[in-house]
Specification:
Oligomer: single chain
Strand content: under 5%
GO cellular component, one term: peptidoglycan-based cell wall
Organism: Hyphomonas beringensis
Number of helices: 13
Family: Belongs to the glycosyltransferase 51 family.
Strand order of the largest sheet: 1-2
Helix content: 40-55%
CATH topology of one domain: Penicillin binding protein transpeptidase fold
Structural class: mainly alpha
Radius of gyration: 35 Å
Order of helices and strands: HHEHHHHHEHHHHHH
Subcellular location: Cell inner membrane
GO biological process, one term: regulation of cell shape
Distance between the termini: 105 Å
Number of strands: 2
Largest sheet: 2 strands, parallel
């Protein structure tokens, strides 16, 4: 490569680094500004509008959203929302374990990661975008706090037909404000979040209805265990931090009922039908699968690099006669030339003086 090409490449590289650094800084400054200002819109909203849909959205503060909906989305999407720091490593480990066991794919994205993706990033992008929403998830969890993360999430989440945010969804689906949603209505809205353009709330299909019923049971556990206390504050029971008495077993928390599996066939299934396809949900599922594959590969490579040498119990090789002699000398006190001399045997020891004998 001649000097001109090298100089041009270095100039391009320098500007590319500057642009990427500028974007990185701008995103974080924007994220800090959103602590106080409302989210003006998201990339997905722009995509829907460019696709010809009428985007309907009415941002409201968290105080004007029913606590039922807060519990419902925690029960449906992220039961450890109040416990993790934006990334749920426990959920990721479970997802990888189930993947290795061939039990299908489990979503491990937290509500915080979904919020970061919706506000700052885009659908698709595979592993790089997934790493991006993990990074931004940790960032906003640290600087926004749980209540603000939940408020933004409930104002930008998609509920199908161009509806974004809890207020627009509640008005369109139930003809009421988000503040007035009942437990059942909140469960129905949360039930369709994974695929809002395919699963219907009005009226719900058999699977969505069953899923909402399970969510209602999970919502009661969320309330009784205080799993939404970081958002709803004093209105929720606080998680017990007391230690069990000595010799007393720790109380077991009430188990969360498992959500039903989507049917394999029919309009509520994942098969290709004449029903509207939820492209965003499919892209997210593909990204989740790609990311799990990436993590599996990283685990395997890391494991191979850190495997310790296996110690075997093989019998030692027999020693040569010279080695046996040297070993015998060592066990007897070392080589002859290095052992302490026996002075009495050599006649060199001084005679003992008898104290009772007369002096000469």
């Amino acid at each position: 490569m001649d000097d001109g090409l090298m100089s041009g490449f270095l100039t391009f590289l320098k500007w590319a680094v500057r642009i990427l650094a500028g974007i990185f800084v701008a995103i974080h400054v924007y994220a800090l500004a959103l602590i106080w200002m409302p989210v003006p819109g998201t990339i997905l909203m722009m995509q829907r509008a460019m696709g010809g849909e009428t985007v309907r959205r009415e941002p409201v503060p968290l105080s004007k959203i029913s606590p039922h909906l807060v519990r419902a989305v925690i029960a449906a999407e992220d039961t450890r929302f109040c416990q993790h720091d934006g990334i749920d490593m426990e959920a990721i480990e479970k997802a990888l374990k189930e993947r290795r066991e061939g039990k299908g794919t489990r979503g491990a994205s937290t509500i915080t990661q979904q919020t970061a993706k919706n506000v700052f990033l885009w659908n698709g992008g595979g592993v790089p975008r997934k790493l991006g929403d993990m990074w931004m998830g940790v960032f906003i969890d640290q600087f926004w706090g749980k209540a603000r993360v939940m408020e933004v999430y409930l104002n930008v989440a998609e509920w199908g037909d161009g509806l974004f945010g809890a207020e627009a969804a509640a008005q369109a689906r139930f003809g009421k404000s988000a503040a007035d949603l009942t437990e059942r209505e909140a469960a129905l809205l949360a039930a369709v979040l994974p695929s809002p353009n395919k699963w219907r709330v009005d009226p719900p299909g058999p699977y969505v209805s069953r899923r909402a019923g399970t969510l209602q049971a999970r919502m009661r556990v969320v309330r009784s265990q205080g799993l939404a206390a970081c958002v709803l504050g004093a209105s929720e029971p606080q998680p017990s931090l007391s230690r069990p008495q000595p010799n007393q077993p720790a109380p077991q928390p009430e188990a969360l009922p498992d959500l039903p599996t989507a049917p394999e066939t029919g309009p509520e299934s994942d098969e290709i039908t004449d029903q509207p396809v939820d492209e965003a949900a499919e892209i997210d599922a593909a990204d989740e699968d790609d990311f799990n594959t990436f993590l599996e590969g990283a685990q395997e490579r890391f494991g191979e690099a850190t495997d310790e040498q296996v110690v075997t119990d093989e019998a030692p090789e027999p020693l040569s006669p010279e080695a046996e002699a040297a070993q015998s000398e060592t066990m007897d006190g070392g080589p002859v030339e290095l052992r302490p001399r026996d002075l009495e045997a050599d006649g060199l020891a001084e005679p003992e003086v008898d104290e009772d004998s007369p002096e000469l």
